[in-house]
């Protein structure tokens, strides 16, 4: 019965998603016809053709690979340090008081300011990684800390009374409480990863990268190319989100 309901909900979700995409594409097409100037708003088919052309070029894959490597580097550094910081923040009020000023400060500073400072401090290839770390790290740390605070203290006390090992407590009590919050932080963090990396590349202009390609297209007034690179970023972000959801379901 439950599986039937889940399949029905999944089917409705898929149909709704497809319908919304078709609606947005139709609206996009109508607007492009009304404006009548591809330099301002190219049509969906023009962007699709340009995207296919890009994906057929080895140079485009170098751009994609460069941004992906920078993004995943910054993300996994943020993930590791965020888990550690969040765990101890959730366990210790003192550690929370110690780390909160730094996390709050990072969240409060405009990303553009961070990028401009990073351009002064680091080589252009490192700037996107650094910015990604600063943007994603507070999200993961806060999510993990919230999960740790939601651990049932009564279960912990019972486990201690029955002399359960630290490994058993971590596996059976702590992790099940943290994982939903962690996956939420990962999902949010991945979305921010692509945004922050591309934004940093646009301003720092490394030799290869999606942001560099976007900036070049903008300078040359190639709006269809700019839309195509943006579409590629959206597809990469969507793929990342899909993989996280699949991993969460398996857990």
From TrEMBL:
| Domain ABC transmembrane type-1 span(s) in chain numbering | 64-244
TM regions (residue ranges)? 21-40, 69-90, 102-122, 128-148
**GO BP term, example:** transmembrane transport
- What UniProt keywords apply to this chain's record, in alphabetical order? Cell membrane, Membrane, Transmembrane, Transmembrane helix, Transport
- Could you tell me the membrane topology recorded for this protein? Multi-pass membrane protein
Q: Which domain of life is it from?
A: Bacteria
Q: Where in the cell is it found?
A: Cell membrane
The record, for Gene3D superfamilies, names: MetI-like
Q: Does the keyword Transmembrane apply?
A: yes
Keyword Heme belongs to the record? no
Q: Which GO terms describe its cellular component?
A: plasma membrane
Write out the similarity annotation.
Belongs to the binding-protein-dependent transport system permease family.
Q: What is this protein called?
A: ABC transporter permease subunit
């Amino acid at each position: 019965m439950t599986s039937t309901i889940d399949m029905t909900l999944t089917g409705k979700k898929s149909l709704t998603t497809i319908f919304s995409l078709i609606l947005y594409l139709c609206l996009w097409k109508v607007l492009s016809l009304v404006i009548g100037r591809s330099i301002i708003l190219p049509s969906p088919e023009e962007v699709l053709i340009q995207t296919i052309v890009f994906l057929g070029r080895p140079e485009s894959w170098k751009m994609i690979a460069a941004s992906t490597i920078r993004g995943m580097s910054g993300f996994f550094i943020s993930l590791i340090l965020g888990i550690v910081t969040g765990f101890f923040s959730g366990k210790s009020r003192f550690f929370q008081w110690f780390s909160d000023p730094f996390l709050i400060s990072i969240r409060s500073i405009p990303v553009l300011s961070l990028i401009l400072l990073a351009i002064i401090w680091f080589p252009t290839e490192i700037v996107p990684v650094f910015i990604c770390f600063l943007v994603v790290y507070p999200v993961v740390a806060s999510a993990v800390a919230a999960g740790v605070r939601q651990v049932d203290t009564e279960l912990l006390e019972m486990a201690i009374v029955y002399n359960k090992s630290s490994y058993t407590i971590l596996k059976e009590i702590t992790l099940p409480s943290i994982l939903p919050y962690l996956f939420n932080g990962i999902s949010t963090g991945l979305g921010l990863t692509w945004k922050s990396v591309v934004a940093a590349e646009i301003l720092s202009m490394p030799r290869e990268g999606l942001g560099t390609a976007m900036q070049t297209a903008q300078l040359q007034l190639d709006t269809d190319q700019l839309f195509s690179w943006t579409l590629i970023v959206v597809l990469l972000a969507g793929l990342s989100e899909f993989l996280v959801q699949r991993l969460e379901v398996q857990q």
